[in-house]
Amino acid sequence: MWSELPTLHGLALLPAFFPDATRAVVRAIDAKDLEDCAIQGLVVNTFHLTRTPGVGLIKSQGGIHAFMNWKAPVLSDSGGFQAMSMIRENARYGTISDAGITLSPVDTKGARKLKLTPEKCIQIQFDLGADLMVCLDDCPRPDDDVQEVSESVRRTILWAERCKSEFERQVAERRLADGERPLLFGIIQGGYDEELRRRCAEGLLPLGFDGYGFGGWPLDLEGNLAADILAYTASLMPETVKYALGVGSPESIVRCWRMGYRLFDCVLPTRDARHQRLYCFDEAMVDLSRRPLNPAAHHFLYIQDAKYKRDPRPISELCDCHCCTHFSRSYLHHLFEIQEGLAQRLATIHNLRFYATLMHRLRQLENGLQEERAS
After folding, report:
1. Rg (CA), the chain
2. Contacts of 207 (CB under 8 A, 6+ apart)
3. Given the residues 20, 33, 77, 131, the one annotated as active site
4. Is 265 one of the annotated active-site residues of the chain?
5. Fold for domain 4-266?
C-alpha cells in the first residue's frame, strides 16, 4: 500500500486530501493559510484556467506554482467533468465527439469557442506545470442509460490512449528523465455498471498509468455514497495510487480509505465554510491503543445560530487552527453577520485544518495497522 506520493514539488503523505483551487485559488485564503493548515496539495482545473486567465498567461508567469505562490504539489483536472455538467445538461454549451470536447461561448462576453482534444488537454497541463496530470475522460451523467455509459467507456479508453501517447511525446520533446516528469492518471468510467467498469479498466491498465481514478459521480441517484461500485472499481486498480475524484465528506473519505483509495478532492469543506457550516471532531485525538471505530466522528457547528452570538469559546477546543487559537465563536458570528470577508477566510481555514487532521488520523491508523501485521 502506497504511503507517499513523490512529485516534482515534494512528497505528499498518503492518504491526502487536495482542496479544489479550481481557478488557481482556494476561495478566501492564500498559500500561507493553506501551508499553515498542513494542506499537501491542490487541484486546479484545465478547462477553467484555459478560459480565464488563459494558459499562455500562466506559463508566462512561470507556471501554476509561481502564479499561485504555491510550492507543494498541484494536480490538474482534465475538464471532463465540466463537459458532463455543462454539455450533457444543455447541448447549447457544446458538443462531445471522438475528436474531443468543443465548448461554445454561451452567455459570456468575449469568450471564444474552446476545443479540448486529448492531445490539447495534455499540452495544457504541461504548460501549466502540473505535478499530477489527469487524462481527458468522457464522464456520463448519473442517470444515463447503459448504451450511453458504454459509449462513454469506449471514448474514455480512446482518449486515454491518445493522452498517453501525447504525454510520452511531450516527455521526449522536453527531454525529461524519469525523476523529472510529472505523473499521469487514467480515469475509470462505467457508471454504476460493474461490467462496464471492468471493461474500462481492462482498456486502461495496459497503457501503464502512474495512478488510477474513480471517474463519474461517486453518489447514487438517492444521494448516498455509491459504495459498492467504488469498492469494485478500487479492486480493478493495480497497487498504485488510487484516486477517488469528488469524494469529500469525512464519512465517505474514511469508507473509501478502507477500500484502498488514498487521494481525495472536493469543494465540500471550503463551500461549507463559506456557508457557515463548520466541522468539529467529537473527541480528542486518541492514541492507537484507543483508536476510534470512526476516525471521522464529528458534528457540525452552524455559526449563524443566535446561541453563538455571545459564546466566548473557539469553534473547537480540539482544533489548533488560526481561527480557533485566536478568535471566538462570538467574533466569527459577528463577522458573518456584517458580511465581512475575514469571516470566510477564518471559517475556511478551520474546515481545511479539520480535513488535514483527518488525513493525519488515517495515516496514524494505517501505520498502527501495519505495525500490528508485522508483529
Report:
1. 21
2. 160, 161, 164, 186
3. 77
4. yes
5. TIM Barrel (3.20.20)
Residues 34-55, mean pLDDT to the nearest whole number = 95
Tens digits of residue pLDDT in 115-155: 899 999 999 999 999 999 999 999 999 999 999 999 999 99
Mind giving me the DSSP string for 117-158? -HHHHHHHHHHHT-SEEE-------TT--HHHHHHHHHHHHH
Nine-digit cell string for 89: 445538461
Does residue 31 have a pLDDT over 90?
Answer: yes
Domain boundaries, the chain: 4-266, 273-374
**How many Å apart are CA 272 and CA 141, to the nearest integer?**
24
pLDDT in tens, 257-285: 999 999 999 999 999 999 999 999 997 65
The span from the CA of 11 to the CA of 372, in Å, is 25
Answer whether residue 290 shows pLDDT above 70: no
For residues 264 and 280, the answer to whether their CB atoms sit within 8 Å is no
Report the pLDDT averaged over residues 219-226.
94
Which pLDDT band, with edges at 50, 70 and 90, does 113 fall under? confident
DSSP E strands, the chain: 4-7, 10-13, 16-19, 42-45, 74-77, 94-97, 100-103, 114-116, 132-134, 183-188, 211-214, 241-244, 263-266, 277-281, 298-302
The three three-digit cell numbers of residue 247, written as one number? 469524494
3-state secondary structure of 55: helix
For residue 35, give the 3-state DSSP assignment.
helix
Taking Cα atoms as reference points, which of 240, 147, 234, 245 lies closest to residue 196? 147
Q: Which of 20, 33, 144, 265 is catalytic?
A: 265
- Tell me 33's DSSP state: H
Judging by beta carbons within 10 Å of its beta carbon (0-12, 13-18, 19+), is residue 142 exposed, middle or buried? middle
CA distance 150 to 91: 20
Question: Can you tell me the distance from the alpha carbon of 52 to that of 49, in angstroms, rounded to the nearest whole number?
Answer: 5
- CA-nearest of 114, 127, 212, 206 to 170 is 127
